[in-house]
Amino acid sequence: AADATATSTSTVVAPIAIDRVKAAMQTVESLRERLDKARDARGHSSEVMGRLARQIFVTGMGIEDASSDAPIEAVLSVEPALEGSADAQAARAWCAQVLKMYRGWAAKRGMQIDDYSMGNDVVLTVSGFGAFRLLAEEAGLHVLEASEDDESSRVIARVRVAAAPPGDLPASSAAKTLRATIEKAGASNTVVRRYR
Length: 196
Fold this sequence. Notes:
The chain is of the alpha+beta class. The chain has 5 helices and 6 strands. The chain has helices at residues 2-37, 46-68, 88-108, 131-136, 174-185; strands spanning 73-80, 112-118, 121-127, 140-145, 154-163, 191-195. It has a 6-stranded mixed β-sheet, sandwiched between helices. Strand 2 and strand 3 (121-127) form a beta hairpin.
């Protein structure tokens, strides 16, 4: 039964990913044509050249996603790793800062970001080429160390990442469904990054 589910998901995901890659390749071609037309005595437009380079990179990520049947969307949550810690306010502030970092990362890459809130919890969906493959490497503990010598000055956030469920979710139950998806992904206790 598990194989049938995996096959049906991959047959749905692959055509969508291929369609997205085709659209991205059309954008590359359009930018290349625009670059050729915008050439003047000083050479090529640096603005168009930069956009073309980013689009080529993103399209490459899309090709990798399509060829490996990688999920199109990732679900990400950031939560305090030690709920009973003495400084819960500092832990929540650190989690908010880490979430802001991921929002900025995704926006810089032109990915679509949606926030779903449930009380104090926020779950993000991030959609774009390479989103799941790159964010999956971020799952684990992110440790903020105010001082190397004082362990009590550490604040730890746990990042969880999962593949988003395929298809559109009803607005009334999206946050709950995404929270359940994250919970199924489990919680890694591996330190992924240290910050000072």
